[in-house]
Amino acid sequence: MAKKEEKESIDQLIQKAKNDLQFYNINMNIHNFSINENYRRSCEGRELNFVVTKKLFTKKTSNKKENDESKIEKFTNFQWAGEGNSYSNRLVSVTNRGNAYVFNADNGSLISSENFGSGILNACAIEQTENQMFAVGGFDGAINLKNIVINNDRRDKETGTTKFTGHQGSVSALQFMNTAFMISASLDSVLLLWDINSQGKIVSSYREHTSEVTCLDVNEVNGNIFTTGSGDTTVKIWDIREKKACVSTFQGSDSSINCVKFLPGRLSTLAAGSEDSSIRLYDLRAVKELGNYKKDDNYSVNSIGFSKSGMILFASTTENNFLSFWNIFGKDKPFYSFKYDKGNGTDTGLLKASINADKTKIAFINGDEIAIIK
Q1: Does the pLDDT of residue 130 top 70, yes or no?
Q2: How far is CA 204 from CA 165, 190, 191, 219, in A?
Q3: Are the beta carbons of 226 and 175 closer than 8 angstroms?
Q4: Containing H/E element for 57?
Q5: pTM of the entire predicted model
Q6: 103-113 tens-digit pLDDT
């Protein structure tokens, strides 16, 4: 049986992927939320027949002649809203100019925007049960928490900002564990657990990593459990209910871990992407590495995600405009790579590819745009 499966054609693997994922339809649309110029075009992809339609959100800039690359506002991070209510179509994002934007991911309209100063914001999160609250973190080590306001002219106490201070380095990642607690990671190598309802009280600090903490992921089945990756080349699983919160450590490669992600519906299985272009699959019960997936290039993996069943793994890099897809029970090489082609002949790289809560859309950052494949 194993030999027969190895001989399956690419077309058969693609058909399996189509059956597994709702976003593998014959026709797929891409909606883009752009900070800069507004335009629309169509093009046809390869193999999977992507039909690309761009609907761009345009942000007014103070100087339209500004061409200096260092002065262009670019997205640095985003997160999808949680599943299950009327606000599940929200997407929160942050930029290198200190701005946070909340979009309607269905039509590209801007729901809310907020400026948190001129510094770079590189981490953001939206609370996953009510989808009414978001947090952002930046280079100054501070975290700002705010309710999502549809009418930006309304400025009352209920829409005020709560500031959390405690990190000594840049905030690299943060996520809500529930409506009461939030976890954050920093380049100071420390993880902080926050009590949201007590105006920024630090409940616990975790210092088991010996280098910068680059990424984290809260388990969608049990919000008490999360995983982290670090420049110390380790992946750790944590349970905040335990006296010793770090319950397991996995050794990755000899390079920094850039991204971590739990397998959907699993408490103990997760993947980690690293700078050596590899993705490793770990399981707490087996206490070992279950799989190793390698891209065709040597570019650093900056984000990873899974389909609803967990059968399909995808990843992005900042060095090129490809999303790579693997069957986790197939070969270690991608069975398909989708290129996001802007038509200008340049590859600016993709950042933070992520699938939404109901696993029907993938979004990724491309400079001043967030593109959504659905």
Answers
A1: yes
A2: 13, 10, 8, 18
A3: yes
A4: strand 56-57
A5: 0.82
A6: 998 888 889 99
